[in-house]
Amino acid sequence: MPRFTPMTDSIANTPNDPAGPWAIPVRRPLPGEDKPKATTSFPRKVWNLLVGIKDALALIFLLLFFVALFGLLAGRPNAGLPVSQGALQIELDGIVSEQPSEVDPLAALSGSDQLKEIRVRDVVHALEVAADDKRVTSVVLDLDRFLGGGQVSLAEIGAAVDKVRAKKKPVLAFATAYTTDSYQVASHASEIWADGIGGVAIAGPGGSRLYYKGLMDRLGVTAHIYRVGTFKSAVEPFLRSDQSPEAKEADLAYAGVLWDNWLSDVKKARPAAKVDAFIADTAGAVKAAGNDLSQASVDAGLVDKVGSRMAFNRRVAEISGAADDSKPWEYNAIPLENWVAANPPATSGSAIAVVPVVGEIVDGEAPTGVAGGETIAQHILDAAADSGVKAIVLRVDSPGGSVLASEEIRQALLAAKAKKLPIVVSMANVAASGGYWVSTPADRIFAEPETITGSIGVFGILPSFDQALAKIGVNADGIATTPLSGQPDVFGGVNDEFNALAQASVEDIYARFTGLVAKSRKQPLDKILPIAEGRVWAGGTARQIGLVDQFGGLPDALAAAAKLARVDGDFHAKYFEDEPSEFSKMLASWSGAEEETAALPRGWFGIAAMNRQLTERRLVQDMTMLTQAGSVQASCLDCRAYLPAVPRPGKVEAKGFFATMALLLK
Question: Which of 116, 169, 232, 651 is catalytic?
Fold first, then answer.
């Protein structure tokens, strides 16, 4: 009979065992016997690996975050830092704009191009302060990677440069090659330098744009256009294969005015230069100079000296001192950002609110660089609710956009007027279509001769693809209980009833638009109708026909607003606008987006290549308007050619009749 011997190593019957009598017996190793090796299951190994990767990524992310945060804080201008004596260094790498746009975090992280934008008022204020500050012994205009801006903005910077020169301070400009925009600024300098492989090449306004009617016919895409205005050429690329005579007439008229103003500005700044002869036959001038564009520019008096950047820097160091005696090619520089931070605008006296309307006008909220109807309206209401604000100046630099968003902004201005606040509009480079709609409540409208305005007209656009589908053997069919059932039918075709309704909606809005203009301008409607029709006007002509009250920039508008508000004594501008978030700035810095300026073009061919890229961006804008315009538009597409084609943050959801129709297409 088998004999069972109790296991002396068992802990199952240990009286004090917390596991109790049901514990699983565990065999302990005998003396001299090796302990068994612990084993880990494969799933647990995988889990431990994933946890380790997660912990490592978290540590890396935190490290990068704090490094980026440190870099951001260290790189930010500090108003408390002393500003040394030297040359005010204004590097215009990128474009100048009324309101730099918010950096798109996704675009920054994906490495997409992020054109740097420099605020115009920062440059102007920096120059005006530098004119009277002894610490600034000269001014350097670095235009080597300058891609331009609106003509009003360029004229404002040029006028500020003149104030520096009036104080007998030298202003030196440098670029490898100068184009129309960069030379307008450079012409105001006391010394203009160009690299030996560059020079001056002036193109002037004008150029071609794309027309898509032939392609759309081939593809079978039908663009249903609803518009009012003989000159409302924003939708012509989808209706025609060329520019209409009316649109060409209007374009030539205001482009001619802008060109005359450019020539006048440059000739006044450089009276000895042979501007007309050089522009009329640039190729001949270059050939006469032995195919040397830089020498031809000197011969015409457009450039003072030809030399490398190092030679230019040595020249600045002769005037403002060298940063290091052992490096005579490095001059004492005061960066623009530091100078602006150390010299904030004055805030003495009464406050005049300034509300910028910059970029395309869209429905809803929008970041900086885009004029969201709700966002701008809230800024106006905030200004009206501020007991310290005595008047409001609307600074408009917009080609227009959504009618509903424009009306929302107008209603906010009317609410401010109901509180007895004077409203003054200051037009910058462009204030057309929706940009003029929001200007109608003003007690007074200021513009510059170079301002592009007018374009009083509206349109709506919806595409359909029934013919395109038929070409590949796809047809649409169904039932309808009313004439508008399923309309607009992008697959089966838009019917006459819907077209009639959409056109009636557009005509009603146009009647409202012209009525607003007639009322605000205190003119009979029959006098407004001939100057409406969607026609674009230059500021000088707009004043003659009564769309603008007087010439002047933002300072003039502020002074007029203070006078209307009966302000005694000093006053200052108080801006009501959003600033680009620190988060987006950090992402831009972290992703290297701010370093994109190093890749900007230098030289004539490089700038020409960049202009090609800007044209491609306008192509994207055209396609976006065709497929995503979600409301009736008061927009001037032609006007956009006179503004830099910078990427803007995505549009917000539109509202209204056409928006509802657009949602049905998605």
Answer: 232
The DSSP output letter for 12 is: T
Pairing of strands 400-402, 633-635: antiparallel
The reply to whether 81-207+266-342 and 350-458+502-575+599-664 are identical in fold is yes
The CATH number of the domain covering residues in 81-207+266-342: 3.90.226.10
Alpha helices in 19-104 (DSSP H): 42-75
Q: What's the token pair of residue 236?
A: 């012509």
User: How many other CB atoms sit within 10 Å of the CB of residue 299?
Assistant: 16
Cβ neighbours, 10 Å, residue 63: 10
| Integer CA distances (angstroms), 294 to 148, 154, 302, in order | 21, 23, 10
Q: Is it the case that residue 444 has pLDDT exceeding 60? A: yes
Rounded distance between C-alpha atoms, residue 496 and residue 498, angstroms = 5
Pick the closest to residue 513 from 225, 223, 224, 232 (CA basis): 232
Question: Is 232 noted as a catalytic residue in this protein?
Answer: yes
Q: Cα(325)–Cα(330) distance, rounded to whole angstroms?
A: 9
Q: Is 274 noted as a catalytic residue in this protein? A: no
Q: What is the pLDDT of residues 552-562, one digit of tens each?
A: 999 999 999 99
**At the top level of CATH, which class does the domain 350-458+502-575+599-664 belong to?**
alpha beta
- Which pLDDT tens digit goes with each residue over 131-152? 999 999 999 999 999 989 999 9
Quote the tokens at residue 568: 């005694």
Q: Where are any strands of DSSP class E within 519-664? A: 536-538, 550-551, 571-575, 633-635
**Strand bridging mode 146-148 / 191-200:** unpaired
The Cα angle at residue 505 between residues 499 and 506, in degrees rounded to 5: 90
Which residue among 233, 294, 406, 433 is the active-site one? 433
Please check the confidence at residue 307 and state whether its pLDDT lies above 70.
Answer: yes
DSSP per position, 498-541: HHHHHHHHHHHHHHHHHHHHHHHTT--HHHHGGG-TT-EEEHHH
Going from N- to C-terminal start, the domains of the chain cover 81-207+266-342, 350-458+502-575+599-664
- Cα distance between residue 411 and residue 438, in whole Å: 9
Q: List all residues 6 or more positions away from 121 whose beta carbon is below 8 Å from its beta carbon.
A: 98, 554
